[in-house]
Amino acid sequence: MSWAGCVGIAIPPSIYSRKLGGFKMVSRDEALNILKKNLKNKNLRKHCLAAEAIMRKLAEHFGEDKELWGMAGLLHDIDYEETHDDPNRHSLVGGEMLAEMGFPEELVHAVKAHNEVHGIERESLLDKALYAVDPLTGLIVAAALIKPEKKLAAIDVNFILNRFKEKSFARGASREQIQCCSELGLELEEFIEIGLKAMQEIADDLGL
Ligand SMILES: [Fe+2]
């Protein structure tokens, strides 16, 4: 069954509108619409926006394709609500959805590999970045929320680093996974700095 059949959403051919690196890609607006159709939970949408912002910033850092990396961040959890009752399918369903929409194999692989339960090896820089970014957004949000201001502008890298070291703080944000920034050749401090800056730039969208 096609992913469209799985989730009951038809994707019009008109979305295959933009070429990127020889591959068919949807526009950012169209991707946002796809996200909204598939994810109703506002916090989950914000997580995706945060992941997009950090992925774009990382792409810039590494001289990689910002559009492609941003799109991977934005759409990596596209199947989250669809696979809620069966987390073992999470990311495989999403990867197939995105493949059918014409996204490049590189992006599809990164999305599938970001859920480690499948044992898919992280091969590219994109794979490694998406994997490490995923839990970082939650850590940064949680750090901002314990400040009286509840704003990203109220926290800095050291504050987040100290929260990182507190095992009981934001347990859901896997420290081990965030530490995988080392696979990118990044020190934890630098990775957090890039993540915080990226999220601060879209603070209004994140409501923080
Ligand atoms: Fe995620």
**Number of separate structural domains:** 1
Spatial gap, N to C terminus: 40 Å
Q: How can the largest sheet be summarized?
A: 2 strands, antiparallel
CATH class: Mainly Alpha
Shape: globular
Unreliable stretches covering 5 or more consecutive residues: 1-21
Number of helical stretches of at least 4 residues: 11
Bound molecules: fe (ii) ion
- The overall strand count is 2
Sheet-strand content, in percent, reads under 5%
Summarize the SSE layout with pairings.
Layout: H1 3-7, E1 18-20, E2 23-25, H2 28-38, H3 42-62, H4 66-75, H5 92-100, H6 105-113, H7 125-145, H8 157-165, H9 175-178, H10 188-201, H11 203-206
Helix pairs in contact: 2-4, 3-4, 3-7, 3-10, 4-6, 5-6, 6-7, 7-10, 8-10
The structure holds fe (ii) ion.
Fe (ii) ion binds near residues 51, 76, 77 and 134.
3D structure, described in words:
With 208 residues, this protein is mainly alpha-helical. It has a single domain, classed as Hypothetical protein af1432 (Orthogonal Bundle). The chain has helices at 3-7, 28-38, 42-62, 66-75, 92-100, 105-113, 125-145, 157-165, 175-178, 188-201, 203-206; strands at 18-20, 23-25. The chain has a two-stranded antiparallel ribbon. Residues 1-21 have low confidence and may be disordered. Bound molecules: fe (ii) ion. The site of fe (ii) ion has 5 residues, from helix 3.
